[in-house]
Amino acid sequence: MPASALYILDLKGKPVISRDYRGDVDLSVINNFLPLLLSLEEEGMASPILVHEKVTFVYIKHNNLYCIPTPPLCSYRTCAYVVCCSLYCFFDLYQPVVATTIRNANVALIFQFLHRIVEVFREYFRELEEESIRDNFVLLYELLDELMDFGYPQTTEGKILKEFITQEGHKLELTPHIPAAVTNAVSWRKEGIRYRKNEVFLDVIESVNLLVSKTGHVLQSEIVGSVKMKVRLTGMPELRLGLNDKILFEHTGRTRSKAVELEDVKFHQCVRLSRFENDRTISFIPPDGEFELMSYRLNTQVKPLIWIESQIERHSHSRVEYLIKAKGQFKRRSTANNVEILIPVPADADSPKFRSNAGYSKYVPEKSALVWNIKNFPGGKEFVLRAHFGLPSVESEQGEGRPPIKVQFEIPYFTTSGIQVRYLKIIEKSGYTALPWVRYITQNGDYQLRTT
Known about the structure:
Elements: E1 5-9, E2 15-20, H1 33-42, E3 49-52, E4 55-62, E5 65-69, E6 97-101, H2 107-125, H3 130-135, H4 137-147, E7 148-149, E8 152-153, H5 158-164, E9 165-168, E10 171-174, E11 199-212, E12 218-232, E13 238-243, H6 246-252, E14 263-267, H7 273-279, E15 282-284, E16 289-298, E17 306-315, E18 319-328, E19 335-344, E20 350-356, E21 360-364, E22 369-378, E23 382-390, E24 405-412, E25 421-427, E26 435-449
Parallel strand pairs: 11-26
Antiparallel strand pairs: 1-2, 3-4, 4-5, 4-6, 7-8, 9-10, 11-12, 12-16, 13-15, 13-25, 14-16, 17-18, 18-23, 19-22, 19-24, 20-23, 21-22, 24-26
C-alpha cells in the first residue's frame, strides 16, 4: 500500500497539517473529495469508497470524524505503484480521515491503517479533535513520520511509539536510542520484560444488539464479541488460545460438542494468521499490558435477555399512566447488574409518581424519559413498575410515534453465544508457571424495544 501524502484538514476542508511522502501525485486532488462526498450524500449514494476520475477515496468515520483513504483505480502501466494516500480530518458535520490513491491497492489494508492511526492519536491525545490537533503539531509530524515511511506503514503500535516519542505538555522529547522492538520481527513487544508474579487476564465480552417490534417479534439481532487481555509475563512468551470453534471441531471430528461459528473475525497483529488458517490455532506473542486480541460477530437470532412489556394509557388533557413489566429471560443462576430501563414519556409531562417492587425510578426531563434502575436482576425474575404523569390542560400535538424503550445491563459469567475458552497455554523458554484468569461478560449493545 504505497501512499504519497497524508493530510489533516480543518472543518472547512483546508489542510491544517500535511505530510508528503513520495512527491509523485498532485496534492490538489484533495480539493475534489469534499464536493464529491456532499453531492453523493445529497443523492443518497454515499459510500465508504468514492471515485473521482482516476482517483479513489476510501474513508472511515470516527465519532464526528470521517477517515478517508483512496486506493488506486487505474491499472495503467504508466502509473504503476503511484499511490496518493491523503489523510483528512474535519471536525464538524464533515470530518473525514481520507486516503487517496491512483493505483490498485489493498483497500482493506488502507482501512486498517487508518483505524490504527486513529487509535495511536487517541493514545496520545485521549480524544481526536480539532483542538488536540492544533495543540500538538510537532508531535503529530513525528508520529506521521514513524507511522509511515516513503508511503508504507511502519510502526503502528502505540506502546512502542511511546518509548521513543514522548510528550510533556505540548513539547516533544526524543530518547537517544530507538527501542529494538521497532526493528525486530515482534515490533509490538520489547525484550527484557520482567515480573515477579506472572499473570494473564482474559475477558470475553459480548454486546447484544437487538430491535424488537411492538408485537414482540425480533426484527434485528446480532452479537458483537471481543477477547481482551491484560498480560503481565516475563520474557518473550508464546501463548496458544483454544476456543470451542465450530470449524475446528468439525476438522477434528468432534461435531457433538457445543461449538460456536464465529463470523467477521479480526485479530491483533500479534496473531499468526497462517497458523490460524491452517489448523484454527490462535498462536501469538502478546504485547505487554492491555490489548484486544480479537473481535468477532454472530448474525444469529437472539432471544431478548431482558424482556420489557409496556402498557401505556393516555387520558386526554389530564394524565398518562404506565405499567412496565421487566423479566429476565436468561439462566436463573445468572444475575444482571446495574440494569437501566429508559422509558420515553411526553415532553410536556409533569407531576411524576412511581411505584415498583424492585429498584428505584426517577424522571429525567432533559431526556423526556422515565429511568428505572435495578441494581441486581436475577434470571427468571419479573419486576413491575407503575408510573403516573400529569399532562397540561391544552394537549400538545402528537408526534409520529413514541421512541423505543432502551435497556442497559451487564451479566457477568455469562455469554449469549456460548463461546468458551477451552485452554490458554503459556510457553516460555525459562519454563516459569503463570496464572491465567478468564472472565465472561454479556452486556447490552444497541438494545431497543418498540412501543409503537
